[in-house]
Amino acid sequence: LMWSLDLERWRKTREALRSLRAMCRLRGIRLIGFAFPMQFELYPGYRYPQPHRTIAENFRVLGIPFYDARAALSRSPNGDELFPKRYDIIHPSGQAYDFLARDLLLDMAKRGWVHGTF
Question: Do residues 99 and 62 make contact, with C-beta atoms less than 8 angstroms apart?
Fold first, then answer.
């Protein structure tokens, strides 16, 4: 996790996000940040949230809405069980993607980006 401490990489990331934000605004495109957790980030008592917090803070500082998939999956009754293959900590199940799609849709509705009953 040494990359998470590299301030120069974070600066370059913010510059790229700032450019992307400007391009989206110019074209009337809504932009939202999305961080996807690895399985171990959902374990009870996970004690290294700083990289995730830094990602969220970068979006906040730039005024770009942020959807926190880690927080959403933590609210799921299945939590880290949404990762069915124990050796694959990156790819969750279809159930996880379904849960996130529904939760993201609700988040977008709260922002006034979509309308309807979900």
Answer: no
**Does residue 62 register a pLDDT over 80?**
yes
Chain-centre distance for alpha carbon 87: 22
Structure tokens at 25: 């605004």
What's the pTM value of the predicted model, to 2 decimals? 0.79
For the segment 45-55, what is each residue's pLDDT rounded down to a tens digit? Answer: 787 777 888 88
Going by the DSSP 8-state scheme, the letter that residue 82 receives in this structure is: G
Q: How far is residue 75 CA from its own chain's centroid?
A: 14
Residue 104 C-beta-side C-alpha neighbours within 13 Å: 17
Residues 62, 14 contacting (CB under 8 angstroms): yes
C-beta of residue 82 within 8 angstroms of C-beta of residue 92: yes
Q: Tokens at residue 68, please?
A: 């926190």
- DSSP string across 2-49: GGGG-HHHHHHHHHHHHHHHHHHHHHT----EEEPPPGGGGSTT----
